[in-house]
Write a structure and sequence with these properties.
The chain is α/β, with parallel strands linked by helices and about 400 residues long. It has 2 domains: about 160 residues, Aldehyde Oxidoreductase, domain 3 (Alpha-Beta Complex); about 170 residues, TIM Barrel (Alpha-Beta Barrel). It is about 35% helix and about 20% strand. Strand 6, helix 6 and strand 7 form a beta-alpha-beta unit. Helix 5 crosses helix 6 and helix 10 runs parallel beside helix 12. The two termini are about 50 Å apart.
Length: about 400
Amino acid sequence: MRRFHLASEEEIKTGKTTDVYFVRAKEILQAKGLAKLNVLMEATASGLPNGWPWAVLCGIDEVTHLFEGIPVNVYSMREGTVFKPRDINGIRVPVLSIEGSYGDFCDLETPLLGLICQASGIATKAARVRKAAQDKFVISFGIRRAHPGLSRMIDRAAYIGGLDGVSSLSGADAIGMKPVGTMPHALVMAFGDQVKAWRAFDEVMPEDVPRIALIDTYYDEKTEAIMAANALGERLHGVRLDTPTSRRGDFLEIIREVRWELDVRGYRKVKIYVSGGLDEESIEKLSQAGAEGFGVGTSISNAPTIDFALDIVEKTGKPEAKRGKLSGRKQAWRCPNCMEYLVLPANRDQPRCQRCLGSTESMLKPIINKGAIVGALPETAQIRQHVLEQLKKSDL
């Protein structure tokens, strides 16, 4: 009996996490001698949640390991690519394609989509938060809102999307960094006194841990901010506001008050951090009010998934697709200047950008060749940097 409801790596790899109709399809194909039918399938998203104009592709490293050892060829956009669901002409943009005998990989369609749908949604939401926060410090706080078995994936995707750090131990291990965080209300309540809790934190924690005091447990935030400054003096790095919505009032005004009271007492270097129910819209407003760092949880960890679909577009080397899909092998071309996409049949020459007439780059590259990994698997920090460079484009 399992104590936690988690699928193992072996179960994912061997198709035990698929939908039953793929198992039935495989049995039928084998019985009728069609298991070796060669197909080309492509993953596309017809649109994005909430009208998002772009998304960040995430989870490709896991897809690579999913198909390692399976006799197929896989072509994919680089992990961390900012893509649009449709090109300049309204054609769906393929982010990934697979070719091989359908019976060899049909039972991996479900885990494939699961690996990229959720991670891409989280990375995209994190990237939207990153753009709203500009150069402000943002960390991922959301693992408590999801199954703990997903903590590594959630924090990795959030970091790839551009966040500066993560709070979970497992997530920090996944990205090769130290976890980031302050203190819980429970610590303050255990002491029954804010000042005692802050001083205990200062006395016990190593010097490399910033002294950030949680200032909304018992009293008004302005009052506790002054108390924290008086208690820790120059050792106080920042204060954090995590006020529940029911007590929040005008949060922008509260932040302005805290900033003012710290400043007039000579604590201009003390930073204001905010957490609790944040998203890209609220962060933009809070930044203008004086907040300098954010802990973002539920809106990122529970971000809407990207609704990718995987469809046959070629059978036995000939174009074929179900209604509503476009048949044939394709290549997605992107202009590195304006980030516009153009999808063409794979046998077409490299095009010029239809929007700015600049050169384009092919986006679908081989990552698996006959089961062997042939594409690079960059470090997480490199993927994140790639995302940040793309987010600087003015059209995003």
